[in-house]
Design brief:
With 241 residues, this protein is α/β, with parallel strands linked by helices. It is built from ten helices and ten strands. It has one domain (26-230): 3-Layer(aba) Sandwich (Rossmann fold). Helix 5 runs parallel beside helix 7. The structure holds NADP nicotinamide-adenine-dinucleotide phosphate (NAP).
Length: 241
């Protein structure tokens, strides 16, 4: 490049771009949400809230007829299908199966989940006479197990601390809680934050990368202790954000 050429180059913009507003989240209203294990209380509760907020929702089951039977009580245009069809037809796929079936379910759906935004809400917990306690998955957490099993998916984690009882209660209009959202890619995390924010009363808050999912999943053991002592359906609020 000659000195004349360089003189013709536009001056380099050295000014820093203004920091992005962390509450400037994308519009997710047109995305289809699938829920694997959507016939259980957590999956049905999330499906109910998201569909009521206007989201297109499909609940999945290992047996399509169980999912179709469950949608009758949900309304709001929720559809039912088997887990594979649910994954195929959805943009965002929430994993709401028990920890026992987590690895096997995801492994069997690797193809259908390729390219999808996966949201893991699974809490690996054990229960004994002393109450609930956190298990220690080999991969670090359920979310990290999902990421390891689904290399072609965009894995995030969220919705761990919600009470399925509150989610399903038709008398309750607002769920007073924050949702911690974890993930590796900011754009994906923001989609999940925006999705949580569609439910009245909820905010989705970035809470770190997947290597920190274990604490978030484990905290549910503490919330269960709170619920038992105070006969409550405790949620979480993150202050000063
Ligand atoms: N309940 C809550 O308040 C809550 C809150 C936050 C997070 N979570 C998490 O959300 C997940 C679902 O909770 P849940 O209480 O709804 O659980 P659940 O009722 O025990 O299971 C949900 C659904 O998963 C399917 N399923 C059962 N065993 C399975 C297996 N071995 N493999 C694949 N699918 C299986 C069943 O649907 P089909 O038989 O129709 O396939 C079942 O209806 C759990 O991992 C939990 O940690 C729960």
């Amino acid at each position: 490049m000659t000195s004349t050429d360089s003189a013709q180059q536009p001056a380099k913009d050295t000014a820093k771009a203004p920091a992005k507003d962390p509450w400037d989240l994308p519009d997710v209203s047109g995305l289809v949400v699938g829920v694997l294990g959507g016939t259980g209380p957590q999956g049905k509760g999330l499906a109910h809230r998201l569909a009521k907020a206007g989201q297109k929702v499909i609940i999945g089951s290992r047996a399509a007829e169980r999912a179709r039977a469950a949608v009758d009580e949900l309304g709001y245009g929720v559809e039912g299908a088997d887990n594979a069809e649910t994954a195929r037809r959805s943009d965002i796929v929430i994993v709401a199966v028990p920890w026992d079936g987590h690895g096997e379910t995801l492994e069997s759906l690797r193809g259908e989940l390729a390219g999808k935004l996966v949201v893991d809400c699974v809490n690996p917990l054990g229960f004994d006479k002393q109450g609930a306690y956190a298990l220690k998955p080999e991969e670090g957490s359920a979310a990290q197990q999902a990421a390891a099993l689904l290399p072609d998916s965009r894995v995030t984690a969220a919705f761990h601390h919600l009470s399925a009882v509150l989610l399903q209660d038709p008398e309750i209009d607002e769920i007073d809680t924050d949702v911690m959202v974890l993930g590796e890619v900011r754009a994906d995390v923001e989609i999940v934050q925006a999705l949580a924010g569609r439910i009245p009363g909820m905010r989705g808050i970035f809470a770190g990368r997947l290597r920190n999912a274990h604490q978030v999943e484990s905290l549910v053991a503490n919330l269960i202790s709170v619920n038992r002592r105070y006969k409550a359906h405790a949620g979480l609020r993150v202050t000063d954000v």
